Amino acid sequence: MIPQTPGVHPAWLPDAALATLGAVDTVVLGDGPLVDTVRAEVAHAATLRGGEAAPGRLTLALLGAVPDDAPEPVLAAIDAAAGAGLGEPRGTGPGEPREAAADEASSTLGDEGFVVVRSGTPQDPTTTVLAETGHGLLHGWFHLVREGALALGGPGAQGARGPEGTSTSTASGTSSHERAGLSVEVHRPTHDLRVLDHWDNISVHPVMGQVERGYSGGSLFYDDGSLRPDLGKVRQYARLLAASGVNRVALNNVNVGRREAELLTTHLDDVVALAGAFRPYGVRVHLSVSFASPVVLGGLATADPADPGVQAWWAQAASAVYAAVPDFGGFVVKADSEGQPGPFSYGRDHADGANMLARALAPHGGTVHWRAFVYDHHQDWRDRSTDRARAAYDHFTPLDGRFDDNVVLQVKLGPVDFQVREPLSPVVLAMPQTRVAVEVQVTQEYTGQQKHVAYLAPQWTDALQARPWGDDGPAVSDVTSGTSRGPATAAARTEAAASGDADSGAGAPRSAGGGLAAVSNVGDDVFWTGHPFAQANLYAFGRLAWDPTLTAEEILDEWVALTFGDAPAELRSTVHDLLSGSLDVYEQYTAPLGVGFMVSPTRHHYGPDVDGYEYTAWGTYHFADRDGVGVDRSCATGTGFAGLFPLDLAQTYESLDTCPDELLLFLHHVPYSHVLHSGKTVVQHIYDTHFAGVERVEEMLTAWEKVAPLADPDLAARVTERLAEQHRSAVEWRDQINTYFFRKSGVPDERGRKIY
């Protein structure tokens, strides 16, 4: 049975997305739990056929399960795969040559890869999906679902559906080959670890609620202090995640309370149940654990990672978890951060703490995701030398090379805290001997809290596809995938020169990358994500974690085509247009030019409060005065943060002549009269963008009102309500920001618009 919950929006797997494949005669070859899931998917799609079978044949097969008497197109597919470098072609005799080919292919495909071979004609197409594992076969099935009718178009038909059902370019993470009337595509995930972190509390927290930074109702997993008795929606969620590319889920908040800590021990049965709900779709579960667990749960006097009793306690706890959940993924740890316990309490560093946990997990194949979000949250606002943006760099880069192989250092995308505009965290680029994961925030803590439309994929693609060492250097995604570690940063070169170390950071990569991680935006809401359009961000994370070379527009094309596939073209086109560019709109009417953190502390970061954090201990300042605004992070006169990047990029950030406008106030304190590369002064840019942002929201409202009657009534009502709130909030942002800077600077708007 396919998990479907009545009354819950199907997201990107509505029945309409499966109907095309359901009309084709399909055979599944192989055995195993995930192959059974593929069979269930195929059987469900077949129930949607609604008439005679469409022309064509579809086979999904494990490489070792293809019999010698299989149809010739399937046997030819194995030959074609061999021609693409996956093993040797079958011989004339039965059995052995083809089995050898399958073995060699599997070593190339890995646990989750698959091959798609197409042959025949548009009138009589044959598509064969080959994989070594059921996991790969499941990914192959969902790949065909994304393609829709193009999945059976014969050779050359590969590519995902655009908003009008047209083909988009094949992802560059896919290798394609043409061989004698057949096309062969080899698909493998770029990142082995594609993790969604749920910040769910088992009981409702008195301040942070059921889900910390959650804007989609309550927890999907827990209710009223206990595991939900019906996990049907969790199984449906697992299906959605598998279809997007996510393969790991952390089940609880990184700020671990006592009840959540007990998931490791007395409430391990809850983990067993949740793992069982995710397992049919190949999604493995992780736990956020408290570093103080030996004290809190075990009654020990210490949690010192060097203490043999502490080490033994963690080893026993890990063994118990794996005895109950053999495919358990590992631990997520927030330590010495915002009040969470950690190794600093015992005079140890973060490598000591992470490695102690890693060694408890290593016999079982588990991984520690150790978060690098460590900074002084008791900062004196008078002290301009302390810089939260460089805190993680200063804490962690001296530890490079000391982390065990099963430790992943999980680094936030930006150096402060998921702002709409920040530079990439330099930690990602400065730890060549450490597995590094980039962590993004799918939940919209600082980007409108799922009341505003803000499609986040452009932010993520800009970061992952960036080449910080120059056009000929590796991309950021090469670092997170483990295929490259990159040359040295400017700071590392300086340190190497001072120490006489000739090895400035270049060299062979680690054997495995850290992958991607994200904070989930999902709750028990009927639309999963509060705002129906916020589903696009969840989908985009999974797709980019699988293939970071995809463009934001390609992913948006896929999501619209799947989610609204049977809707009128006018509705699909409008939804696409509303999302495309929506992050730019949000940036226009909120904090300007990368300065960030002008949000309300009392409303949990929702809405404007320009000075709300200016005199607090959190280190999130803009330093606006009568003369100018921005944080001086230059090497010449500021905190030196600009120099923590690769040399050319560091020089770009250091100079006002070359610093990008969009990051100017993150990196420099400038007068209001400073002229941007655009030709506008800073203060006039602030006025213009904030008026323009509200105008664009008004255009979004008008466009939606025209097509809302074409949408599902419940979805239309939810979107209409959220867009109205977005407009109200955007007006408030505009008026507060413009008024603040007019009063600070005394400079009027050159166009004479209303400023209070």
From TrEMBL:
PANTHER family cross-referenced by the UniProt entry: ALPHA-GLUCURONIDASE A (PTHR39207:SF1)
InterPro entries named in the record: A-glucoronidase_C_sf, GH, Glyco_hydro_67_C, Glyco_hydro_67_cat
Name of protein: Alpha-glucuronidase
One CC-aspect GO term: extracellular region
Biased composition (Gly residues): 85-94
Region (Disordered): 85-109, 153-182, 466-513
GO BP annotation list: xylan catabolic process
